[in-house]
Amino acid sequence: MSFLVEFWQFLKVRKKYWLLPTIIVLVLFGGLIILSQGSAVAPFIYTIF
Amino acid sequence: MTSILGISAFYHDSAASIIIDGKIVAAAQEERFTRKKHDSNYPHKAVEFVLKYSNLNLSEVDNIVFYEKPFLKFERLLETYVAFAPRGFIQFTKAMPLWLREKLFQKKMLIDYLKENDENFNDERKIFFSEHHMSHAASAFFPSPFNEAIILTADGVGEWATSTVAVGKNNNIEIKKEIHFPHSLGLLYSAFTYYTGFKVNSGEYKLMGLAPYGEPKYKNLIKDNLIDIKKDGSFRLNQDYFSYATGLRMTNEKFNNLFGKKPRNSKNEKITQFHMDVASSIQNVTEEVMLKMAESLREEYNLKNLCLAGGVALNCVANGKILEKKIFDKIWIQPAAGDAGGSLGSALALWYNEMKKDRKKIDSDQMQGSYLGPEYSQNDIETKLKEIGANFEVMKEEELINKTAEDLSKGKAIGWFQGRMEFGPRALGARSILGDPRSETMQKDLNLKVKYRESFRPFAPSVLMDDVSEWFNIKEESPYMLLVSSVNKRKQITMSPNQSKLFGIEKLNIKRSEIPATTHVDYSARIQTVHKETNSKYYKLLKKFKEKTGCPVLVNTSFNVRGEPIVNTPEDAFNCFMGTELDILVIGNCYLYKSSQDQKLKKDYTSKFELD
Fold first, then answer.
1. What is the pLDDT of residues A1-49, one digit of tens each?
2. Residue among B94, B100, B249 whose CB faces A26 most closely
3. ipTM of the complex
4. Helix (H) or strand (E) holding B27
5. How is chain A split into domains, by residue range?
6. Are A7 and B71 within 8 A, CB to CB?
């Protein structure tokens, strides 16, 4: 819960409300995405994420 | 008493630092404990070490600061994917699971990890997050000997910023301007690291070392197509040629076509003159950006001092150029300029910038020579060596120094393990391999028989501060090996017309100066000045070596093999000693000859570490 509060505060401070729909969609489809495993791509790319 | 624990983790070099009432007490990188190079996991062991060193339990620590802001990074990722859509879909599918599973909940993750360090820890109000480039800036300014300075930080990317300009005054840092992702000098350099077949985020040094063998033939090609450099050094990268923002590689097909070749595959392709010329070109462009930035900042803010941090500040050749041009009166570079140093910077940023505490000592360098890691007592060392089954002799300090200097002058390669371990990527005479720089074969021998690395790579000289200007074209202190200068003309050996005609790596075999092992093919050297105040034992050794040979310089390379983190414990040092062709090991006051060791203790060592 504290995560949601903090994240909402973050969006308010940054005035990035437009990110909210993207995030909601992400969370809705999150389950699907989480199921696919992120793999290491380190040798080829600087870790930007 | 207020203690602040700084942590950097989850990207490149995890580390932990602790400051008590603003004083830097201890700092170490996790890789040294886990023996995994650039370890990016939560720094359990480094946290454990800094707490133990400062006699604190985690619950007793007043504040904990993480070196960057995860939400801000997430914002950058989302906006980047939106901006590039649909191109970034593949990277998106890789990044999002990672973020939705853990990175977005870094605070909770951090608390869980911290609980593993101390189960009684339960106060999340103690946890703070500092901005990535603020952490770098704080690590560059607060430990510096300056009351006022321009702070320039540049790296791959933090949250949004890739380069930042800040002004530091007394106990305050104010960020003035930033260059944002995807325009990044660090990523540009890394793109070429990838293209020339080296490992991104560790092979950048190699690219820099390769540059003097080439000619900057592609400089204009790079400037005409890849980067638009403005008068003040700010720049924009042409994203048509890069794929790091959206893909899983640094560069793309268009980039390959521009240079007429695919990226080098290090497994089956040798380094050619082409790669040397590419290295020289990108090094040249990097220097141009750094110089232009430095010049315009000096003019704009009219401050005399410059502080540098961020991965790009490890480009000691560019740093040396800024120094040489005398743009600023003084330059100070954070020795742990990469992300590890962010742990220290984040703690300092909280103490000074947020808590507004006074900076008490502003006239001297507060990094203590960067000797901030673990140390071992003579007793510990002897017990450990006996346990391992090592044969050693214990000497008084004076005898030990005399013997070491004598053996160095005979061309022996010596592992030197003394005092507290260095914080940052450079070995500075606490965990070093030493050699005689006058030897013509030392560079090749150390590279191939001891370090098992590419023969083109240069070695750095340690020189007594008192003698630096006699041997090199530099008067300033360079205690952290982060400035490159040329060998003094008087010490250089001019190449014959035939030798001058040689190309690239062929030049390596020519004796270029009185200290060939530490003179690069362009007569440059990455200098470490040695000071009595910060490392008296090493200083005495150099003095003794000078007494015996007339030369106040030693080859100083990190105590490890290629792909291995620098040794941390006496045991690590002994294993490296037995696994390589090092002749002698000096740990504390113990002296070990390879020839006196039980040969059964020899191990297949290098295969343990993945080549970088």
1. 788 899 999 999 999 999 888 888 877 776 666 665 555 444 466 777 7
2. B100
3. 0.78
4. strand B23-29
5. 2-27
6. yes
